[in-house]
Specification:
The complex is a heterodimer of chains A (317) and B (532). With 317 residues, chain A is α+β, with helices and mostly antiparallel strands. Chain A has 10 helices and 6 strands. In chain A, the strands form 2 sheets. A 4-stranded antiparallel beta sheet of chain A has the order 3-4-2-5. Chain A has a two-stranded parallel sheet with strand order 1-6. In chain A, helix 6 runs antiparallel to helix 7 and helix 7 runs antiparallel to helix 8. By secondary structure, chain B is of the alpha+beta class. Classes of the chains: A alpha+beta (317), B alpha+beta (532). Chains A and B meet through helix 4, strand 5, helix 5, helix 7 and helix 8 of A and strand 20, helix 11, helix 12, helix 13 and helix 14 of B.
Chain lengths: 317, 532
C-alpha cells in the first residue's frame, strides 16, 4: 500500500552534530533582525502609526499619474498610491495628519470628496482612519500581548516540564519572534494588528512543536536511563521527525490558499505564516534541542529520575 | 480503553448531529429561513463588519470642553454671588479646573470663601443625603480659589459619557440603521458599530454636532464686521448660506434654551415651499419664549446652533403658543437632520471621531468569497495529504476535520460570536493544527505496530500515549489566543475566537470521535494488520 512518508522510517540523523552551527546561524539571524528593527525599521501600518488608508475602485483602469497629481495638491504630506489587486483598485495611504485625532477625519473626507469630483463613478470600498492616541494604545496593547504570551508560555512549560525545558523553549521563542520581526523589516510588509496576530500564531505553532519534541525527550529519559543525553535527544528528534514534518506539511497546506486566494487583506498574513512554519519547524530541531543539551548535559542525566518532577505528564498505558 | 459504553456512543453521535443541526441555518437561503421558527433561524454566525460591510467609529468625548463649561458657569455665578454678598473684587480669573478671585480687601477672605462654597453642587451620596461638595475653596494672599475636586472631575466625566451615549443612541436610532452597537469604551470613549452603512458621513455629521441650541437676542447697535464684540456679546457666523449677512453680534444671555424643546419635525412652508423645522416648547420654554417675544417685538431673535446663527428672524408679534418654526435655507435632508438633532437633545460636549474603519458591502462580499474559497481549497489539500500519508486512518481524520469545522461554526452561531476576515484565516489555520492530533496518534500507532504490538494494543497505546502530548501542544496555543482575545480589538478578536474554538473542539473530534470510528471499524473488520 502506498504511503506518503516525508522521511523514511528508521531515519537516524545526528542532528546534535550541527548544534553549534544551528545556534550560531540562529543567533546571527536574530541579531541581524534586531538591527533591522532599528534600522531601517519596520513599515508600521496605520494601526500603529496613525494615518489614513482608503481603498477605491475606479470605473476604468486608474490613471495613477493624474491621481497622484490631484492628491498632492491637497497638501496632506506624502501620498502613497498602490494598485491593489486589479488595475481599477487603488489603495491610497496618507501619513498621519498633523493636529489631533479629528484631523485624520477631515483629511479622509477631503480625499473622498476629491475622488468623487475627480473620477466620477468611483466607489470607496474601505476607509480606515486612525488617530495618534488610538494608534499609540493599539501598539502598546500589541506589545503587551506579545510579552504576556511569552510569559504565559514560560510559566506553562515550567510547570509541565523541568526548568531546562522551559528555558529552552522561551529562548527559542524569542529567537523565533525576532526573526519574524526581521522578516517584516526585510520584506517591508505592513506591520499592524494583523502582524501581531501572525506573530502570536507563529509563537503558538512553535511552542506546539517544541512541546511535542520535548515530550518525547522526557519520555525517553525515563525509558533509556543510561543513554547519553546527546544520543537521546537525537533519537527523540528522529522518532518525532515524521510527526514534526507531517504537522508542518498539513499546516502549510492549510495556509497556502490564504497566500494565493485570501485576497489582498489576508495575503500578507498567509505569507508570514508560511515563513513562520519553516522557522518553527527548524528551530524545534536546531535551537530548542541544542539548548536543552547544553543546559541538561549534567543535570538531566545524572540525577535522572524525571518522574518525580512531572508525575502526571505521561500516563502509563 | 477500547470499549465504548452505549451511552457514550449515543452522546458522541448526539453532539455531532446537534452541531450539524445548529450549523444548518448558516447555509439556508432567506426564503427557507423565514419559514423556520425564529429561534432556530436566528442561530447564525454573526458576520463582522469587515465581511458584511459597515462602519466602526470610535468617538471621544471632549472632557476639556465639559470642564471649561463648568468653569465658565462658575465665573458667572461667582460674579453674582459676590455682588450679593457685598464682596469687592478686582478680577475673576478662570483657570484649568476652577477660578481665582482677586479681592479688593483681603479682610473679606472669609466672607468670600463662604460665598463661593455656596456655589458648589453636591455629588455622590444617596437619597438620604451625604455626598460632598464638588468645589474645594481655599484662600490666601488676598485671593480666593475655587477648584473642582478630583472626585468632581471623575463624576463629571462619567455623567458626560453616559449622557453622550444616550444621545448618540437616540440620534442613530433615528437614522434607521439596523442593529447598531453603541458601547462605552474606557473612561471617555464611545464605540459605535453600524452594520451595512455604506456612507458613514451622514452619521458622522450627526454625531459630530453638539446640537446645543439657544435662542438669543441680536445686538443691533453693534457692527458685526468690527473686530471685537462689545462686552456681553459674541460675534457669531451665520449658517444661512449666503443670502443674509455673514455674521451677527449676539447677546451672551440665553433667553430660551434648546433643552426646553419637546419636539421638532421637518416640514415645508406651504407659502414658499422651502424646508423648515417646526418645534414645540415645554411649559417653561413656552412661557419664556412668550415673555421674550412680547418684550422684543420688532427686533431680531437669533436661533443659535453650536455657535452658528441658523437664522435671525425679526419678531413680528408675541409668540405665545409654545410653537415656532426655523427657516434657514434648508434642503430636505438638512431639515430632517436638524429635526433629529433637536429631538435627540444636545451632547454635553463635542464628540470627536478618533478611529474609523469602514468597509463597503461589495468589498465585504468579495472577502467572504475569497475566504470561503481558501477554506475549501485548504480543506481539500489537508485531506489529500492525510489520506496519502495514513490511508484509511487519514480518511477518519478528514471526517473528524469536517465535523470539527461544522462544530466550530455551530459554536460560533450558538454563542453569537462574530466571524471576521481574520476569523476565516483562523478557521483555515485550525484545520492544519487540528489534524496535528491525528498525526500524533497515527505516528504512535505506527510505532507501536513496529514494536510488534497487536492490532488492538497498538491503537490503544497510540491514543493513550499521544493524549498528554496533544493536550500540552494545544493548550499552549489556546493560552495565546486567550491573550489575543483579551487585548485584541475587533477583527483580531475574531481570529482568536475561531482558533480557540477550533482547537478546543479538535480535542473532541480528533481524539474521542476518531477513536470511536476506529474502534467500530476494528470490531467490524477485525483486521490482521493496521493500514497505517
Amino acid at each position: 500500500m502506498f504511503r506518503l512518508r516525508l522521511v523514511p522510517d528508521n531515519t537516524n540523523i545526528q542532528f546534535m552534530r550541527g548544534r553549534h552551527a544551528g545556534l550560531i546561524v540562529s543567533a546571527f539571524l536574530s541579531i541581524a533582525s534586531v538591527v533591522l528593527f532599528f534600522y531601517p525599521g519596520l513599515n508600521y501600518g496605520i494601526d500603529f502609526r496613525g494615518g489614513i488608508v482608503i481603498e477605491a475602485r475606479t470605473p476604468q483602469a486608474a490613471d495613477f499619474a493624474s491621481l497622484r497629481h490631484t492628491l498632492n495638491q491637497l497638501n496632506m504630506g506624502q501620498v502613497q498610491l498602490q494598485e491593489f489587486g486589479s488595475p481599477q483598485d487603488v489603495l491610497i495611504r496618507l501619513e498621519r495628519q498633523p493636529g489631533d485625532d479629528a484631523a485624520q477625519q477631515v483629511a479622509a473626507d477631503k480625499v473622498r470628496a476629491t475622488l468623487a469630483q475627480d473620477i466620477p463613478g468611483t466607489t470607496v470600498r474601505r476607509v480606515e482612519a486612525v488617530g495618534a492616541s488610538v494608534s499609540g494604545e493599539l501598539f502598546f496593547n500589541g506589545m503587551l500581548a506579545l510579552g504576556l504570551a511569552l510569559l504565559a508560555m514560560l510559566v506553562y512549560i515550567w510547570f509541565r516540564f523541568e526548568w531546562q525545558f522551559g528555558f529552552g523553549a522561551i529562548v527559542t521563542l524569542l529567537l523565533d519572534v525576532t526573526k519574524v520581526v526581521g522578516f517584516y523589516a526585510i520584506t517591508g510588509m505592513q506591520f499592524n494588528l494583523t502582524a501581531i496576530a501572525a506573530i502570536l500564531t507563529i509563537m503558538g505553532y512553535s511552542t506546539n512543536d517544541k512541546v511535542v519534541v520535548y515530550d518525547r525527550m522526557r519520555e525517553n529519559l525515563r525509558i533509556y536511563k543510561k543513554m547519553p543525553l546527546r544520543e537521546l535527544i537525537d533519537r527523540s528528534i528522529n522518532e518525532t521527525l515524521n510527526r514534526t514534518l507531517g504537522t508542518s506539511m498539513s499546516t502549510l497546506l492549510s495556509i497556502l490558499p490564504l497566500a494565493f486566494f485570501g485576497g489582498e487583506a489576508l495575503q500578507d498574513f498567509g505569507i508570514v505564516l508560511i515563513f513562520g512554519i519553516f522557522l518553527a519547524t527548524s528551530s524545534s530541531i536546531f535551537i530548542a534541542a541544542p539548548i536543552l543539551l547544553f543546559l541538561g548535559e549534567n543535570r538531566l542525566r545524572r540525577n535522572a529520575p524525571a518522574e518525580s518532577a512531572a508525575p502526571a505528564a505521561n500516563p502509563t498505558p | 480503553m477500547l470499549y465504548f459504553p452505549r451511552w457514550k456512543i449515543f452522546l458522541i453521535v448526539a453532539i455531532c448531529v446537534l452541531g450539524t443541526i445548529l450549523t444548518l441555518p448558516n447555509f439556508f437561503s432567506r426564503e427557507t429561513l423565514s419559514a423556520l421558527p425564529s429561534w432556530y433561524a436566528h442561530n447564525r454566525v454573526n458576520l463582522g463588519l469587515d465581511l458584511r460591510g459597515g462602519s466602526h467609529l470610535l468617538l471621544e468625548v471632549d472632557m476639556g470642553a465639559v470642564i471649561r463649561d463648568r468653569v465658565e458657569g462658575l465665573v458667572d455665578s461667582a460674579r453674582t454671588q459676590l455682588r450679593n454678598d457685598n464682596v469687592g473684587y478686582t478680577a475673576i480669573n478662570p483657570g484649568d479646573r476652577g477660578i481665582t478671585v482677586q479681592l479688593r480687601d483681603p479682610a473679606q477672605a472669609d466672607t468670600a470663601v463662604r460665598a463661593l462654597r455656596q456655589l458648589a453642587n453636591t455629588i455622590g451620596g444617596g437619597p438620604l443625603g451625604g455626598g460632598q461638595p464638588d468645589l474645594e475653596v481655599t484662600s490666601g494672599g488676598g485671593s480666593v480659589t475655587a477648584r473642582l475636586s478630583e472626585v468632581a472631575l471623575r463624576e463629571r466625566a462619567t455623567q458626560a459619557i453616559e449622557q453622550s451615549i444616550e444621545i448618540v443612541r437616540r440620534r442613530i436610532d433615528e437614522t434607521g440603521v439596523n442593529e447598531p452597537t453603541i458601547a462605552r469604551q474606557g473612561a471617555d470613549r464611545i464605540l459605535v458599530q453600524l452594520p451595512g452603512v455604506e456612507d458613514p458621513d451622514r452619521v458622522k455629521r450627526l454625531l459630530g454636532t453638539t446640537a446645543k441650541m439657544t435662542f438669543r437676542l441680536v445686538d443691533m447697535n453693534a457692527d458685526p464686521t468690527a473686530g471685537r464684540a462689545p462686552p456681553g456679546t459674541d460675534i457669531l457666523p451665520s449658517a444661512e448660506g449666503g443670502r443674509a449677512q455673514t455674521a451677527y453680534v449676539i447677546r451672551k444671555k440665553v433667553e430660551v434654551d434648546g433643552a426646553n424643546l419637546t419636539n421638532a419635525t421637518a416640514g415645508s412652508n406651504p407659502q414658499t415651499g422651502e424646508w423648515v423645522v417646526n418645534f414645540e416648547f415645554d411649559s417653561i420654554g413656552a412661557r419664556r419664549f412668550a415673555d421674550v417675544t412680547r418684550a422684543n417685538v420688532g427686533r431680531p431673535f437669533a436661533i443659535v446652533l453650536d455657535n452658528k446663527v441658523i437664522s435671525a428672524p425679526v419678531i413680528r408679534e408675541p409668540i405665545t403658543g409654545g410653537r415656532g418654526q426655523i427657516s434657514g435655507n434648508f434642503t430636505a435632508a438638512d431639515a430632517n437632520d436638524l429635526a433629529v438633532l433637536l429631538r435627540a437633545g444636545a451632547l454635553p460636549a463635542p464628540l470627536k471621531v478618533i478611529e474609523e474603519r469602514t468597509v463597503g458591502p461589495d468589498l465585504g462580499a468579495d472577502s467572504i468569497r475569497a475566504g470561503l474559497m481558501s477554506v475549501g481549497i485548504g480543506f481539500v489539500l489537508v485531506c489529500a495529504y492525510m489520506i496519502a500519508a495514513y490511508g484509511l486512518f487519514g480518511a477518519f481524520a478528514c471526517f473528524a476535520l469536517l465535523v470539527n469545522t461544522i462544530l466550530t461554526l455551530a459554536a460560533l452561531s450558538l454563542l453569537q460570536a462574530t466571524l471576521t476576515l481574520p476569523g476565516i484565516a483562523g478557521i483555515l489555520l485550525s484545520l492544519g493544527l487540528a489534524v496535528d492530533a491525528n498525526i500524533l496518534i497515527n505516528e504512535r500507532i505506527r510505532e507501536e505496530t513496529k514494536k510488534g504490538r497487536g492490532v488492538f494494543g497498538s491503537v490503544e497505546a497510540g491514543f493513550s500515549r499521544a493524549y498528554s502530548t496533544i493536550v500540552d501542544a494545544n493548550l499552549t496555543t489556546a493560552i495565546k489566543m486567550a491573550i489575543l482575545f483579551v487585548l485584541g480589538t475587533g477583527a483580531i478578536k475574531g481570529f482568536a475566537v475561531t482558533i480557540t474554538f477550533g482547537i478546543l473542539i479538535s480535542l473532541f473530534t480528533a481524539t474521542v470521535l476518531v477513536r470511536l470510528i476506529m474502534v467500530s471499524w476494528l470490531r467490524k473488520t477485525r483486521p490482521a494488520a493496521l493500514p497505517v
